[in-house]
Every structure is written in C-alpha cells, then in structure tokens.
Amino acid sequence: MDEQKITLSITPGPPLSLRERKKRLTQKTIEATALRLFKERGYEQTSIQDIADQIMISSRTFFRYFSSKEEVLVAPTLEVMQEGVRYLGELDEIDSPFLALQAVLMHMAGQYEEQWEIFLLCFQLAMKTPQLSYLFATSQFITEPPLCDILFERSAGESNRREVRLLVSIMMALFRETLVQWLEGDARGGLKVLLRENLDSLDYLLK
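and the corresponding structure tokens:
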C-alpha cells in the first residue's frame, strides 16, 4: 500500500447549499457503507468495487469523494479534528491558550463519545495493520498547525510562536494518549472524564 497523504480542510462559512448537502449525504453514505463492510468482511477483503456496488454507484463516483479505502477509515477522525479547529476559531476570547485548548479537547472528546462505535471500529481495524496504524496516528497530528495559527494570531501579545507550538504539541499528545486509553478499553466509560483526569495529572506533574 502506498503511503497516503492526508490534508485538513477548514471551511467555515455560510450554510451549505442543496447541492453541497447532497454531496455531503453521498459522502456519509459511502463512509457508513464502507465501515459496515469492513466490519462484516474484513478490511483487506473489502474492495472499493464492493463498496460502490452496495450503494449502486460507480467506482469513479467513489473516487470523487475518497482517494482510497484508507481515507475512508480516517474520515471520522479528520471530521473531529476539523471540528476542533472550527470550535477554537469561534471562541469569543482567548485569554489563556492553555484554557482555550482544554475547551477544544473537551469539545472534541464529546464528538468522539457521540460516535464511539464508529471510532472504536476504526481504531480496531487500524491496529491490525502497521500501515493503517501509522495513517490513523497521522490523521491526529495534522490538526496541530491550524490550532497553532489561531492561538498565535489571537494571543500574540502574550505568547510567542515557539511557546504556542510547544503547548499545542503537549496538549495534543495528551489527547492522543487519552484517546488510545479509552479505545483500548473498548470505549467504556466517558472520554471526557478520562481526559479531565489526565489533564489534572499533567497539571500536577508540571507543578
């Protein structure tokens, strides 16, 4: 499998048009169908044509929305990452980058909790294959640059870019570890509760 390149597109703005909503519906249908087949048949045993046949589209239509099966697998994670960046950008004030990031992580944790079955399935599939595991991890790293940009632009008087990058790296590393702990436990219990505990532990360790 060739190494996949993942990009994060942040597109806040006005409500989607009817055409965009239809495209969004098709994308979500492809995603849901693919994940169901991955679960039923296995990731390697499911082809792009299998996915297309299930929802009566051509493979060409599939490629309008996803470049590969791998991209389908990380799509739910990318959506949460995008939502985290959007949430930070819409905060009224950022007096403390640390507190702002805590709010972002809690918001993202809520997104994971709402769709825990999907994320658990994606995690379990990814962990079975080293290349997929790498891709799964990479999909969580790409949110760091846009988070840094927003924090630096809105708190430039208080922090320099190096400090902001360091803070974002630490907080996102904590979030990734918390997420793995949660998913390794089959997503039992609340991710927000576990995240709060780990944030408190970080605060204690830094004192």
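(Above: one complete record from the training split.) Residues 16-66 form a domain with the Arc Repressor Mutant, subunit A fold (CATH 1.10.10.60).
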